Amino acid sequence: MTQQTPVSKASGEGGAAPAEPVRDPRLLTTVASPKGWLDALRRRLRGGELGPIPVIVGLLLIAVVFQSMNDRFLSPQNLSNLTVQIAAIGLMTTGVIMVLLLGEIDLSIGSVAGLSAAVLAVLAVKQGVPEWGAIAAAIGVGLLIGLIHGTVFAKLGVPAFVVTLAGLLGWQGVHLYLMGSDGTINTSPNGAIAMLTQTYFVPFMGWAIAAITVVLYTLSVFVVERSRRRARLPYKPPSEIVFRAALLSLPILGGVWVLNQYKGVPLAFLIFVGFVVVLDLVLRKTRYGRMVYAVGGNAEAARRAGINVDLIRISVFGIASTLAALGGIMLVSRNFAASVSTGGGAELMMAIAAAVIGGTSLFGGRGNAYSALLGGLVLGAITSGLLLLQMDTSVRFMITAAVLLIAVIIDAISRRGRKSHARGGA
């Protein structure tokens, strides 16, 4: 193995530092310069760590192609509509990502979204329950369903595929029963339900949210890196933190500027992004998140390490179905109605496709919450572009299938590259 000497901030005091043991390349600190950052990026690519690069490149290509075919694609109005459109599927995708991290699959999220939408509409319209109360009840139904699925899977040993396939059929049946002969229940266009997708923040609020986001990110990274420095662990220098914050600010401030040209930043998109950020922090910064990755990587090893594998599995399915219920609520809010077709169309396949396209591995143990945002943007951009070009739904399905296949191929190739890199470094 070729030895690599990490750049240590703790060395160099009182003369030459002794030779350090070889470390995992992912723990190496980088020189605070463009060359250092490029070297770190090169190491990650050689190790099969592609990250979000393929998705970002794909998004740029999609934007260039559709803008060249229709100059309204990148208009503020179309981009604003796109952010609202992806909120429902994006929330469902976020739940799918949790299940995929375990190396499992949940086929019931579309039916759960539809059932939650039916519960919401029946309670709010037919039973006269206040809309916020109906929203809470619909979310509770999603959580209960997820806990049932997780318990049957974890405690009884029934494969997740079978459990959630039964859920897909069963909960869809309950959905149809609740809707009754009406088929469609219209909700108020001015109530709390409608507010979720019809609320836009004034420009000042949009700028304030963007500024607070960048500042909080920068301060949190400074705090974390200062703790790592005090513990004599590899850490990022201040110049790199500032550089990363500047890079983060570009899409955030640019996005707010574009959205402010139409109606402002939509609440629905902020809700979606908020769940993505919170879930990402949970997965990366908490003990629970590390246990999820451990169970997805090797359940038996996690069990021997003292992790309650059954509890992790039950909780993950509970989170997934809760987020599916939130997606169903967003569908009702956007359409001002719940119907027998809510959640029963292509929502399931789109949510799974968005998770994989965004970079979550089908093999378990690899991925992050931001896959929902990236994958949702890719599928939303494809749908929006094809609608502007007035192409048939069949074309959208074929293009989505091709993009999904490419994403899976990239995942398989990068997985093979990680294995080869690990063998080469052994």
From TrEMBL:
Domain of life: Bacteria
Cellular localization per UniProt: Cell membrane
Positions of transmembrane segments: 50-70, 82-102, 109-126, 132-153, 160-180, 200-220, 241-259, 265-283, 311-332, 344-363, 370-389, 395-413
Keyword Oxidoreductase: no
Membrane association type: Multi-pass membrane protein
Chain residue ranges for the region called Disordered: 1-25
Record-linked CDD domains: TM_PBP1_transp_AraH_like (cd06579)
Pfam families assigned: BPD_transp_2
Alphabetized UniProt keyword annotations: Cell inner membrane, Cell membrane, Membrane, Sugar transport, Transmembrane, Transmembrane helix, Transport
Role according to the record: Part of the binding-protein-dependent transport system for D-xylose. Probably responsible for the translocation of the substrate across the membrane.
Name used for this protein in its record: Xylose transport system permease protein XylH
Organism per entry: Nocardiopsis lambiniae
